[in-house]
């Protein structure tokens, strides 16, 4: 769906999420949200915070799983996704602490594999992700599933693409500070979500959006696997829609 701007699209996505949260509340059930970081979802989070403050939208029945985290990464570091999520969402809403899940970038390497397995398992036990938010990187990645990632990939430790590291540089003091690795939900983990909303704003995303949506399905553009998912929506602004 092409929106006039990021604000309009983000508002719509936030409303969709809020509606599902409220429906589940009425049924006395929980809802599982898959969350993304980066600049793309920020306005969705701002809108959700506004609805919490002004319209009494409660997050008490909400369980969240974040897509990814740098590895290694301390939660209180400036660039950590834990910090990002607190700043833009969790510190401003009434979500229960125990319902928040973000891959743990502090684990010793020998524990990572089992931890990732448990991450996917926990999602499954809770009934799967109801709504998954995604951004898209210029390499075509979703989460940190870089080119070469197949749709059989589960949550795991990955190596970051050079372009992704360059794009991340804006958040780090210098190149050597950008981690070489990250933990990410796999393509398979993402595709299990019941509904997926991918957000892409700005002309710099136009090329990769076109390749993800219109070109063949290939691990060279991991986001292209979303074409196989029956309930995925791409929300773009006019800039990001330019090559479609
Ligand atoms: C990072 C995140 C991705 C995100 C991407 C795009 O690589 N791990 O999940 O989609 O950045 O970021 P932005 O939304 O700032 O363009």
List the helices and strands and how they pair.
Elements: E1 2-3, H1 6-26, E2 31-35, H2 42-55, E3 62-66, E4 68-71, H3 81-88, E5 100-101, H4 109-125, E6 131-134, E7 156-159, H5 162-168, E8 181-184, H6 187-191, E9 195-200, H7 206-214, E10 232-237
Helix pairs in contact: 1-2
Bound molecules: 2-amino-2-deoxy-6-O-phosphono-alpha-D-glucopyranose.
Structural class: alpha/beta
The total beta strand count reads: 10
Basic shape: globular
**Helical content, roughly?**
25-40%
Global Rg: 17 Å
Give the N-terminus to C-terminus distance in angstroms. 11 Å
- Quickly give the CATH architecture: 3-Layer(aba) Sandwich
Indicate the CATH topology: Rossmann fold
Q: What is the chain-wise order of helices and strands?
A: EHEHEEHEHEEHEHEHE
Beta-strand proportion: 15-25%
Q: How many separate domains make up the residues? A: 1
Q: List bound small molecules.
A: 2-amino-2-deoxy-6-O-phosphono-alpha-D-glucopyranose
Quaternary structure state of the chains depicted = single chain
Number of helices: 7
Low-pLDDT stretches: none
Protein name: Glucosamine-6-phosphate deaminase
Organism: Haliscomenobacter hydrossis (strain ATCC 27775 / DSM 1100 / LMG 10767 / O)
Domain Glucosamine/galactosamine-6-phosphate isomerase: 5-228
